[in-house]
Write a structure and sequence with these properties.
Distance between the termini: 36 Å
Strand order of the largest sheet: 3-4-5
Number of strands: 5
CATH topology: Glycosyltransferase
Shape: globular
Largest sheet: 3 strands, antiparallel
Helix content: 40-55%
Structural class: mainly alpha
Bound molecules: glycine
């Protein structure tokens, strides 16, 4: 591949222009459908499961684009998606801990942008549901829903998922910080801080690598172990989990001012940067996967970049340059390798991998909606045109 000699600013301006064209076409085609990955025809289709954890990313993208352009079509589609999404709040058994992902990017974004009181109520309901998953003894928010002998537990190496927390939940905590501020009531905030502290102690390792899961006895709260999760194996380091840690701890710092959360975010960031610097700034699916086969995950790249930009916003200028430059390198490498800017096809980035062990290959290096969400968030943030959705 030819060397790209453009400055970061030139690259950013070019990507922004392409984004405007691509997203306008996508919004006109997709509207209030809720996409995840395009079908064989290259087009998005509606997801089958209205409670899918990724269903907030499309409205999140629409709110970002509405903020950047003021184009009514984005607002109207985002509101239409939220209208469809709200039924899940009536079915707690269909929900896991991903209420932050689903409702920060839909209802809370709507409320932040328009002040709509119905959107605020839905955001608060989602926060109450999330807070209700807190395990008092173990001091963590329960991740997945299901019985003690669930299939989910078996897939991840066995265990009682009633006592499981996962690193991904760091990104759901901002829903609780928002609710506390909105209601001027510390309850939600305290749960979020307590969960973040437990994650710091039981999920992050001293070298900045992370486990995906921490398992506790759901009755006594005793810490048990760290099952494997979506990465290569127990003790490895799943790159998307790493990226949730970088961005999630940085966000907990933003909302609490607790310096230890910023330090943890940096520790995880340095681990990611060190690993990506030797793979051309593309993240492997797991930083401890075998040398062959080489498989990447563009979602981890985009989330990590957003996390680095968040850290850059909380440190002094000299230090911020380091995190911003690393974010640019990751964004540029991911965009060069995985982007499709043809406005006639849906989805921008391919290269997303859902989990390491994928015998069918159907979930390996494919387009996944949140790679696009975090690419858009990063680009608009760097352009000074983004909406803060966390
Ligand atoms: N939160 C689920 C995942 O990152 O795959």
């Amino acid at each position: 591949m030819e060397e790209d000699t453009r400055s970061n600013q030139e690259w950013l301006d070019g990507v922004y222009d392409k984004l405007l064209v691509k997203m306008k076409a996508e919004c006109a085609r997709v509207g209030t459908k809720i996409p995840y990955s395009p079908g064989a025809d290259g087009m998005y289709h509606d997801v089958e499961d209205i409670a899918n954890w990724t269903n907030g990313f499309w409205p999140g993208m629409l709110w970002q684009m509405y903020e950047a352009t003021g184009d009514e079509a984005y607002r109207s589609a985002a509101v239409g998606v939220e209208e469809r999404l709200k039924v899940v709040l009536e079915d707690p058994e269909a929900l896991g801990h991903d209420l932050g992902f689903m409702f920060l990017q839909s209802s809370v974004a709507n409320y932040r942008k328009t002040g709509d009181p119905g959107a605020r109520r839905r955001g608060l309901l989602a926060a109450a549901e999330l807070a209700s998953r807190y395990n008092l003894e173990g001091k963590f928010i329960r991740a997945w829903t299901g019985p003690r002998d669930s299939e989910q537990g078996k897939k991840m190496g066995g265990g009682d998922i009633r006592g499981w927390m996962i690193i991904d939940c760091m990104m759901n905590l901002p829903l609780l910080y928002w609710a506390s501020e909105e209601l001027d009531d510390p309850r939600f905030y305290k749960i979020a801080v307590s969960h973040a502290r437990t994650a710091q102690q039981t999920i992050v390792r001293p070298d900045g690598s992370c486990n995906h899961i921490a398992a506790f006895d759901p009755d006594t709260g005793e810490y048990l172990n760290n099952p494997g999760g979506q990465g290569y194996r127990q003790g490895s380091s799943w790159s998307r989990g790493q990226s949730w840690a970088v961005y999630g701890f940085a966000l907990s710092y933003r909302h609490t001012g607790d310096k230890s959360f910023l330090d943890t975010a940096k520790q995880c960031a340095h681990y990611c940067i060190a690993n990506m610097a030797v793979t051309g700034w593309l993240p492997l699916v797991d930083y401890r996967q075998p040398a062959q086969p080489v498989k990447y995950d563009s979602t981890a790249a985009m989330i990590t970049a957003c996390g680095l930009l968040e850290i850059a916003g909380h440190v002094e200028e000299n230090e911020a340059r380091f995190y911003t430059e690393a974010a640019y390198r990751i964004l540029r490498a991911g965009e060069a390798r995985f982007a499709d800017w043809d406005p006639g096809r849906d989805s921008i980035l391919t290269g997303g991998t859902y989990f390491y062990h994928d015998p069918t290959g159907e979930n390996t290096e494919v387009p996944i909606i949140y790679a696009d969400y975090f690419l858009i968030e990063a680009v608009l943030r760097l352009k000074g045109k983004g909406l803060f959705e966390w």
